[in-house]
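Materials and Methods. Structural model of L-asparaginase, thermolabile family protein. The 338-residue sequence of L-asparaginase, thermolabile family protein from Rubrivivax gelatinosus was retrieved and submitted for structure prediction as follows.
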Amino acid sequence: MTANPTLVEALRGSAVESTHRGAWAVVDADGDVVASAGDIDRPIFPRSAVKLLQALPLVESGAAERYGLNDEQLAIACASHNGEPRHVAVAASMLAAAGVDDAALECGAHWPYRDVVQREMAAAGRTPTALHNNCSGKHAGFVCLGCVLAGDADKRAFLSGYVKPEHPVMREVGDAIEATTGWRLADTPRGTDGCSIPTYAIPLRHLALAFARAGSGIGLREGRARAAKRLMAAVTAEPFMVAGSGRFDTRIIERLGERVFCKVGAEGVFCAAFPKAGLGVALKMDDGASRACEVVMAALIERFVRLDEAERGFVHAFADQPLVNWNGLDVGRLRWAA
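The predicted structure was written out as tokens:
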């Protein structure tokens, strides 16, 4: 097997200290590969990079409309958020709209990603709940979907175990992923994600196709295409909800608006839709380095999205960024190597 190419270099002074290998694919909605590097046909676990695809049934089922979910709530259903107070409040509001509370969430609890929020909570003697989990918005969406699927049955009983592959909620989610990617999930490795739902190994080629389809609506049935359009509009309107303060996803969408939807996943995965260009993107760093996958995504945005001079400078700063030590000294660079 041929090794994937070096995509990112970390320099100490002027010397290369470390390198990050990986693969990426840019695909149109017809499935044609526009550009790529490395092995784009090896199935990989996309992790949280596919949250937009996982949220499609929330909208297509009518659950979002039934509970009157707004842009903030739909955006956080696609999020890996920092656990900041606004994130927690919006996720809680989704549950309240469906008539349940955070006891229904099966994602587990962890401390917020945002350091200042952690310190404030610790100083006040507070401990995190499932609402602070970076996936609480996605899970709140699953709960809203489950409450609709329950029909006249007891909501609590129906929701129990909604993270299991065989549960009706996860079957709907799996169907959306299979339809958008064109990859048969029954024939691929399945794992358990950090938030306890199933995660399926899918090639980068097919992940990029899914995001090209989501961004354009091409190749999707009418209701699913409308759902994708609605979710992307929500994230464009409320980019803070998809990640949070200082985060790459939020900053890029804030600046570039509807031209880019991007979503990071654990272990060095990133997916994106460039709707105006009709393209989808998927990448994976071999070593799982998040810092490297942001560099690659920025470089691909520079290459495939129409930007003005100021926007190009903004994006390029992510593709070629200084490394600074604790004294604030510039000690090297992290840069796109292709």
